[in-house]
Amino acid sequence: MAAPSHRSTTTVSPWDHREASRLSRRRRLSSNGVPVGQGDRGEQGEESRPAPIQPATADRGVSGYAHGVHRSTASLLCYGCLVAVAPTQSAQYLDDFEFVAATAQRTFPAFEKKSVDWPSVCRRLRPRFAAARHDAEHVLNLHRLLAELRDTHSSVRETNIDVRSPLFDGQASGGLWVVPGDEGALLVRALAPGHPLAAAIAPGDEVIEIDGQSAASYLDNLRARAKTWRGFSSQHFLDGLLGTQFFAFGAADSVRVVVRSADGGTAEREVHHGIELDARACDSPPGFQPEGRARALRLDGGIAYLRILGKMDDATAAEASAQIDDCADATGFILDCRGMGGGGDRPALEIAGRFFREVRDNGTFLPIKPTGAWQFAGPLVLLQDASLASSAETFTWSLTETGRAVSVGRPTAGATIIPKLYELPSGLAVIRIGAKDRPTPVRGVRPEGIGSAPDVFVKFDRAAFEGGRDPILETGRAVLQALLRGDSAEAVIAAHRGSD
Asked: Which of 187, 327, 348, 371 has the highest local Cβ count within 10 Å?
């Protein structure tokens, strides 16, 4: 789920305590401005309520709590050092810091997997909390601290302070969808319909320079900036988010981009801010309208195409089921999950149940039960990519690990650690910290940070996008045609792997 693009970079200037107090009385908002209660949820569809704040004890972890130190306004003991702190606000901010440091040390399951030296991180960032001048700066420090866990779910979940992390501020697409190719090049995947540069830049062209900076260096800087403010379970998940807000315009109206075309020629073009791009319209079949939470389209040969556009909630499950009801005579199904949101596991299994006529064992997870008035039992192809995170990944497992569908595309996000909610001692925010690195239910693999690989991998290179092609959908249709001819799933998968 990509954060909205904003043209100007957010800066937080100091204000006095009275102003911060006034802002704190505003209605409670999540850290990205979404009203509380409208975010995605955790394990099996329900995110737990904030855990009660625990008092200081002798076994609280890496920070001052580990030493059983009473939090006073005079001093604190952190990593063996006695440090003077200011009264009131400063002590409050340090309370929050120590709570996060100790809770993560005690509960986070993937320090080694993610190569995170948490004590070193805490030593490095603690001075920011001690020096924070107001509540808004404190909340931004919390974003920074939790980002170091490199986990998509570990984040500031809600805050009553009117501030938002500048995650993708100043970035926009300029009407171009840009992706890293598998051979190292940065490629134009698609252009917005009617783009003024359509005659000068084509899908498949290579971006080699932006505003005088090499494409590789530019991408590295975008990644580094984003990782400052938010943890990302995998780099390919982050790259997927950057693809449709790739250019750091800031306050500028345009950026200068050098592209290399298929014939090897290079040219500099000016890409302007303000041209909108909907990726879902660029990687869907002709005639498809990406509206609502789920939308079906009939393709040639009696094939039904269903795209899940919403998050995993009851409304999406109901809309998807209604769309499936209109496809009772389909010979085969393409289920396009690209861009599908996370949310709850229960609604995900509700949708999956439309493709099972009998209860199916789902390993260590909930069994999959038939849902709806009827269930489609014909050949099924599932399209996936790096945008699938959290409960969206649960949905793909229910169809792929059980052997019900052949998956086509790219690895999923690998954002599968289950988080737990905590209210901070200050009451200024509710945070999430990853608590359980769950394995997939049938195969028992742990895809956090890696993602679940498709049965049929689709390579991203210049040729894949030339002519405005959607290589994942194109390959998915070819796989489904083979299944409709009577080829076994195993034979189809082997044939496509052999052609890579």
From this structure: 348
- Check whether 192 has a pLDDT greater than 90: yes
Say how far residue 355 (Cα) sits from the centre of its chain. Answer: 26
Number of residues written out for the chain: 500
**Amino acid identity, position 168:** F
Q: CA–CA separation, 306 vs 327, rounded Å? A: 9
Per residue in 210-238, pLDDT tens?
999 999 999 999 999 999 999 999 999 99
- Which pLDDT score is estimated for 89? 82
Q: Is 372 in contact with 323 (CB distance < 8 Å)?
A: no
Locate tokens 């302070």: which residue?
161
Q: Report CA torsion sign: 27, 142, 95, 424.
A: positive
Q: What is the CA radius of gyration of the chain?
A: 24
CB–CB of 202/304 below 8 Å? Answer: no
pLDDT tens-digit map of 29-67: 344 433 333 334 344 434 445 544 343 332 333 333 332
Look up residue 271 and give its two tokens: 């890409």
Q: Please give the structure tokens belonging to residue 120.
A: 């070193």
What phi and psi, each to the nearest 5 degrees, are found at residue 490? -60, -45
Half-sphere exposure of 237 (CA within 13 A, CB side): 30
Using CA atoms, how far apart are residues 466 and 456, in angstroms rounded to an integer?
20
Q: Which amino acid is at 275?
A: I
Distances (CA, A) of 107 to 53, 146, 147, 246, 423: 14, 13, 16, 35, 15
CB 69 within 8 A of CB 77: yes
Cα(500)–Cα(495) distance, integer angstroms: 9
123 and 129 in contact (C-beta within 8 Å)? no
Confidence check: pLDDT of 348 > 50: yes
> Which of 425, 429, 434 shows the shortest CA–CA distance to 36?
429
- Note the pTM of the prediction, 2 decimals: 0.84
- Rounded CA separation 99/65 (Å): 8
CB neighbours of 172 closer than 8 A, spacing ≥ 6? Answer: 5, 7, 245, 247, 249, 273, 274
Mean local confidence (pLDDT), 4-13: 35
The sign of the torsion formed by the CA atoms of 228, 396, 435, 450 equals: negative
H/E stretch holding 121 reads: helix 118-131
Straight-line distance from the first to the last Cα atom of the chain, in angstroms, rounded to the nearest whole number: 30
Q: What is the mean pLDDT of residues 360-377?
A: 95
CB atoms inside a 10 Å sphere around CB 364: 10
425 vs 151: CA distance, rounded Å = 23
